[in-house]
Amino acid sequence: MAKSVKIDQQEASKALADTIYVIGGKWKLPILHSICNGNIRFKDIEESIPGLSNRMLSRNLKELEENKLITRVMSNETLFYEYHFTEYSKEYGDLMLKMIEWGKSHRKKIIQST
Amino acid sequence: MAKSVKIDQQEASKALADTIYVIGGKWKLPILHSICNGNIRFKDIEESIPGLSNRMLSRNLKELEENKLITRVMSNETLFYEYHFTEYSKEYGDLMLKMIEWGKSHRKKIIQST
DNA sequence: CGGTATCCTCTCTGATACTG
DNA sequence: CAGTATCAGAGAGGATACCG
């Protein structure tokens, strides 16, 4: 019994490490949010996130695509590359919204106490 | 109108960058979860997370304390240092649970497709 | 028990420039 | 427009040893 609790704990540790591996880093969450917000083109995403360079955007988009959180397709209509959420990643929209709230309130919390 | 949407977007970007700054890195989420799971002593936390060295644990605990996500107190009863969640961080327990689920299901998703 | 100190490596990130 | 190439700096993370 105590042992299975310990194993559960270690499983959760690994799952959390995976999670942070996939959405970690300075830009992945902002990029996902930008796409979620309607920006589907490279240039648009880049301009929607202050401080983000095209190099980091390129790299992070590639990693997000490898993890199947977004897709990259050439649009037949516009003839531009478009980035979109996958069905898979849409499930986690609310998780992201909570992180946004968390970041906002946390900033206030830390600022007011220093 | 379009402008305020853009500003909202940039605000969210910053909030998400803050969030990932505070809970980012390989070990912060596993550490928080371990404490949440009843481990309150340095040694216990260390042993509950495979691969975590005492050096990284020490550093990350300090940072989490600075961000007011945990407290570190000497217990009068046991005479050991104890780490606890703050009222503040308890609000985000469900956020962490979702990340655990996410990590678990994501691992399955990626493994099956390769 | 609960950490620090030191050293080392490797990845992330940024700045600048260039390309199909 | 949508990136890639190159170089350089900072810091996260790991290994090992030591301390009050």
Written account of the structure:
The structure is a homodimer. Chain A has helices at about 1-25, 30-35, 40-50, 55-65, 85-90, 95-110; strands at about 70-75, 80-85. Chain A is mainly alpha-helical. In chain A, strands 1-2 form a two-stranded antiparallel ribbon. The radius of gyration of chain A is 17 Å and the shape is globular. Chains A and B meet through α1, α2 and α6 of A and α1, α2 and α6 of B. The structure holds a DNA duplex (20 and 20 nucleotides).
Shape verdict of chain A: globular
Number of helices of chain A: 6
Task: Report on the biggest sheet of chain A.
Answer: 2 strands, antiparallel
User: End-to-end distance of chain A, in Å?
Assistant: 45 Å
Structural class of chain A: mainly alpha
In round numbers, the mean pLDDT of chain A is 90
Helix percent of chain A reads 55-70%
Assembly context of the chains: homodimer
How would you describe this structure in keywords?
homodimer, 114 residues, mainly alpha, two-stranded antiparallel sheet, 6 helices, globular, DNA-binding
Task: Give a summary of the structure in a few sentences.
Chain A has 114 residues and is mainly alpha-helical.
Topology summary:
The structure is a homodimer of 114-residue chains.
Chain A: H1 2-23, H2 28-36, H3 42-48, H4 54-66, E1 70-74, E2 81-85, H5 87-90, H6 93-112
Antiparallel strand pairs in A: 1-2
Chain A binds a DNA duplex (20 and 20 nucleotides) through helix 3 and helix 4.
